[in-house]
Specification:
It is a single chain. The chain is mostly helical and about 425 residues long. It has 20 helices and no strands. The longest helix has 18 residues. About 20% of the residues have low confidence.
Length: about 425
């Protein structure tokens, strides 16, 4: 049976989603939400070894710094940044291979590096590598799939769906396309459409990947049995180190456990997943759970080996603040500068991060609710709904809470954490 690429958002939208290809992990990048949720993640075993591959830890010394020290804020090394820029120039200015196969292999590798490092520059390089096929009247199937992944990473979800529709009209048996489509639909909050796409996938391959896709989407629409079903099916997992597919299923189970109101089970599933594959998306997801349950030092530890992406720095800054670490102020300033630079570039794909910072670090609920509401118009993963509800409650926007309550009642997402936030205040 063909190996699927599980979709995952490097920036961690919210849940382990098929957001980009990789059975090592399906963003929904988009989430995790995704986000992702989020970006198509390429399975590591689908790529050959890269002699110039960047060790994510080379981008940061944070994993070697005592979190109680102010030096913990030093997460960017100028020498490493210069080397990354040089690699980017070499890759984009060099002549593209004349054949399609070497180019698509390179694009997958770049997407994989973006997933591992949380660095969007690799996605820009991947997009440039596909440029010569962008205007082709009928791009090859592989190009359509990769282009959809990159469009999703830029939050052009409708564009991604158009490419996937063209591919599936041409080949309705393409399992990877159905998985990626389900991921995009999930990020957009189209959970009924995601159920239909996962059902088509399940009809093509009745394995745990398809089971997880379908169970996740059904739970988001209110199925109480979907989580228990996947739990029972996951008993057959062969948990071997480096098994991306099993790691992804465990991350899906962890997120389903969170939505079912079982944080202890969720933490156990996240840790089992990370024992198989040290995935950035799952590291950030675990950190979010630990922060939400008042365990900031464990959240800090969960991110020790993670590269300093925006999502990681946001969580480190919040963990440092909750634990009253000396590095809290420096980390706050660092991520504030990062987000300001994103805004200055006109980058609107980080709405969730901007709202998250305003709510959890800047103590500005009025700005947070404005940003969270704007983000909700673009993507609707569970994490986006939670963020909007938290911001609305913190700013006293009962009108928004009522509107969100109506949306959740009719179309999801169903989530025990969200239900508590949406309870009418007495």
């Amino acid at each position: 049976m063909e190996t699927l690429d599980i979709v995952r958002d490097p920036a961690r939208p919210a849940g382990p989603r098929p957001s980009s290809p990789r059975p090592g992990r399906v963003a929904l990048f988009a989430g995790m939400a995704a986000a992702l949720t989020i970006a198509l993640v390429v399975a590591a075993d689908a790529l050959g070894p890269s002699p110039t591959a960047v060790d994510p830890r080379a981008l940061s010394d944070a994993h070697r710094v005592d979190p109680a020290s102010p030096e913990a804020a030093l997460v960017t090394l100028p020498a490493q940044a210069a080397r990354l820029r040089a690699e980017a120039v070499n890759a984009t200015e060099g002549a593209l291979p004349p054949a399609l196969a070497p180019t698509t292999a390179r694009v997958r590798e770049l997407i994989q590096r973006a997933r591992q490092e949380g660095d969007p520059r690799w996605l820009g390089m991947a997009d440039a590598a596909l440029a010569r096929w962008r205007t082709a009247p009928e791009p090859p199937d592989e190009v359509l799939l990769l282009r959809a992944t990159l469009l999703q990473s830029r939050h052009d979800f409708e564009g991604a769906l158009r490419d996937l529709a063209a591919l599936l009209n041409r080949d309705p048996t393409n399992a990877q396309a159905w998985l990626t489509r389900a991921a995009v639909e999930r990020v957009m909050g189209r959970y009924e459409d995601a159920v239909r796409s996962c059902t088509r996938l399940w009809g093509l391959r009745r394995d745990l990947i398809a089971d997880a896709c379908l169970a996740d989407a059904r739970q988001l629409l209110g199925s109480d049995s979907a989580y228990r079903y996947l739990q029972s099916r996951a008993g057959t997992l062969a948990e071997a180190s480096g098994d991306d597919s099993s790691a992804w299923v465990l991350t899906v189970l962890a997120e389903m456990a969170e939505r079912a109101g079982e944080p202890a089970a969720a933490q156990a599933y996240f840790r089992r997943s990370l024992a198989l594959a040290n995935d950035l998306y799952t590291q950030v997801a675990l950190a979010d759970l630990l922060l939400a349950t008042g365990q900031p030092m464990l959240a800090w530890q969960a991110l020790e080996s993670a590269p300093p992406s925006d999502a990681v720095l946001l969580r480190r800054a919040r963990a440092a603040r909750q634990a009253a670490l000396p590095s809290a102020t420096a980390l706050h300033s660092q991520i504030e500068e990062r987000l300001a630079a994103n805004r200055a570039r006109g980058d609107e794909s980080h709405g969730r991060e901007q709202a998250w910072f305003a709510l959890h670090l800047a103590d500005n609920p009025a700005q947070a609710v404005e940003l969270a509401e704007r983000n909700w118009q673009r993507q609707r993963e569970p994490a986006d709904a939670l963020l909007l509800a938290q911001a609305a409650r913190a700013s006293g926007r009962n009108d928004l809470l009522a509107a969100l309550r109506d949306t959740v009642r009719t179309s999801g997402p169903r989530d025990a954490r969200l239900a508590r936030l949406l309870e009418p205040q007495r």
